[in-house]
Automatic annotation (TrEMBL), chains A, B:
The modification 4-aspartylphosphate is found at D60. Residues 134-232 form the OmpR/PhoB-type domain. The lineage of its organism: Bacteria, Pseudomonadati, Pseudomonadota, Alphaproteobacteria, Acetobacterales. Residues 134-232 bind DNA. This is Response regulator.
Length: 243, 243
DNA sequence: ACGGAGATGTCATGAATATTTCATGTTTCC
DNA sequence: GGAAACATGAAATATTCATGACATCTCCGT
C-alpha cells in the first residue's frame, strides 16, 4: 500500500512514452492524492479511454506514433470525451507549436521539466474548471468551501494558512474522529517526510487560534495520549482521572 | 512509566538475508508488540506464506535469489495474498529503482537504515489502512466508540483517562471475562514493564468511579483472588464454597 | 539578485494532567 | 479473631500538552 496522502483529488491519465518520466509522474501525482493511471502511447490511451473516464488527461507532446496533438484531436471527436480536460507536457523548444496547437480547443500546457508543485497546481486548476461544484462541508458553526478555499465560522471568514486549512479539511470530513499525531503527519505531510511529532501540536494551536479569534468555544478536542478531534463541545472531554 | 508496547499490534513477516539486521528487526519489532516471524530469503518466504497469513510483510529490497520486488510480484499473483500489505526496506541509493518498482501503488518502502520508531510508525499506518472501520462496541448500558475515543453509559458521556480507557476497551471486548492483575498488566502496560501489581487496583478504582459517577450500579466485578471482570450484575457473584 | 511577507518546523518552558506508590481502612473468609 | 485480599485517599513522580519565540525557507514583486 502506498501513501493515500490527502483526500482524493481526482483521477489522472498519464500518457508518456519515456519510462523514467512516466514513473516519476505517476509516483509524484499519487503522492499528492491523485488516482493515477499510466499508458505508454496514444493507442493505449484510446484503448484505456474506451472503458475508463479519468477526470483529466496529461499528454506528452512528442510521442512515437500518435503525437499528443493528434491524440487530443481524436479525443475531441469522441462523443463522450469532448469535455475531458487535457494538459500537455511539452519541451520548451516546442512552445510555439504548442501555442498554435492550443488554438483549436485544447486546454492547457506545461513545459517540462517542471516542479510537482506547478503540475499539481495546474491540474487542480483544470479540475476546478470542469468539475461539478464541490460541496460545501459544514460542522457545527463551521463551513468549509473547497471551491474558494474559504472557511467560515458562524458566517465570519477565517484566515488559515495552507497547513491549517488541510488540517481542518481532514477533520471536517471526519467529524469527531480522533486522529493520532502519527496519522495526521502521514496524511498531511506524506509518509516519507520526517517531521517532529510535536510539530502537529503547533499547527493545531495555529488552527485553534484562527478559529477562536473572537474568544468563542474551542472546537478542537485534545484527547490526551491519543490525538486531536474536531468536536463541538457537546461531548465531554476525557477528563482527569486522578483524585 | 511510559505505556510502551500496546501488545498485539499485528503479525509481521520479516524477509531479510543479512543475519545481523534480521535479528535486530525481529527483536525490536517484538519489543514493540508485534508478533514476528522471520525467514532468510524469498523462497522461504513463499513457503511460509503457504500456511501462514501475516498482517504485513517486510521485505528487503536486495536479496540473493529472489529480489524483494520479484517476491512481491509473485505474492501479488497468489489468489489469497493479493491484499497482503508489503513494506520494502531499501538502501537509499536504490530509491529511484524502488519508486519505479512500486508500479501499482499497492506497496510502500522505507530507506534503511531507519529508526525503529519510524518503522513502527509505518507498519502501524499500513495496518491501520487495511483494517476495516472500527465498530462501536457495547455492553449493557455501556458504549465505546473507538473512532471518537468516546465512552458513554446510558447515553451519558464518560470522561476517562488514557489508562482507564484502555482498560475498559479490553474489558468490553471480552464481556464477563475475568482478567488477573498480571494479565491486565501485561496487556495494558506491555510485557517488559515492571509496575507494582497493586497499581491495577488503583486504575480499576478510577474506572469504577468514572463509570458510576451518578451512583449507578457497579459494572466492574471483583473476583477475589482472581482479578476483575466487566459484568452487569445479572450473574450472581462467586458463591460461597459451602454449596 | 534582493528583500519582505507569509509559512513552517523546532525548541525551551511552564502548566495541566496521569501514573505510580504508599499508608491505612475495610471486607472476606476460615 | 485474625490473616489475606481488596478499596481508598493522598503524595510524589512522570508524562503530555500549550504556548511563545525564533531560525529557516519559499514565494513574489521589484
Amino acid at each position: 500500500m502506498k501513501p493515500p496522502a490527502s483526500p482524493q483529488k481526482g483521477s489522472v491519465l498519464v500518457v508518456e512514452d519515456e519510462p523514467t518520466l512516466r514513473v516519476l509522474l505517476e509516483h509524484s501525482l499519487r503522492q499528492r492524492g491523485y488516482q493515477v493511471s499510466t499508458v505508454m502511447d496514444g493507442e493505449q490511451a484510446l484503448a484505456f479511454l474506451e472503458t475508463e473516464r479519468p477526470d483529466v488527461a496529461l499528454l506528452d507532446w512528442m510521442m512515437p506514433g500518435l503525437s499528443g496533438l493528434e491524440l487530443c484531436r481524436i479525443i475531441r471527436q469522441k462523443p463522450g470525451l469532448k469535455d475531458l480536460p487535457v494538459l500537455f507536457l511539452t519541451a520548451r523548444t516546442d512552445e510555439q507549436d504548442v501555442i498554435a496547437g492550443l488554438d483549436n480547443g485544447a486546454d492547457d500546457y506545461l513545459t517540462k521539466p517542471c516542479s510537482t508543485d506547478r503540475l499539481d497546481a495546474r491540474l487542480r486548476a483544470l479540475l476546478r474548471r470542469t468539475r461539478p461544484v464541490q460541496d460545501i462541508v459544514t460542522f457545527g458553526p463551521l463551513t468549509l468551501e473547497p471551491e474558494n478555499h474559504q472557511v467560515k465560522r458562524a458566517g465570519r471568514p477565517i484566515a488559515l494558512g495552507p497547513t491549517e486549512y488541510r488540517l481542518l479539511e481532514l477533520f471536517i470530513h471526519h467529524p469527531r474522529k480522533v486522529f493520532s499525531r502519527e496519522t495526521l503527519l502521514e496524511r498531511l505531510w506524506g509518509p516519507n517526510v520526517h517531521v517532529e511529532i510535536r510539530t502537529v501540536d503547533v499547527h493545531i494551536r495555529r488552527l485553534r487560534k484562527a478559529l477562536n479569534e473572537t474568544g468563542e468555544a474551542d472546537l478542537i478536542r485534545t484527547v490526551r495520549a491519543a490525538g486531536y478531534a474536531l468536536d463541538d463541545g457537546t461531548i465531554s472531554q476525557h477528563g482527569p482521572s486522578s483524585g
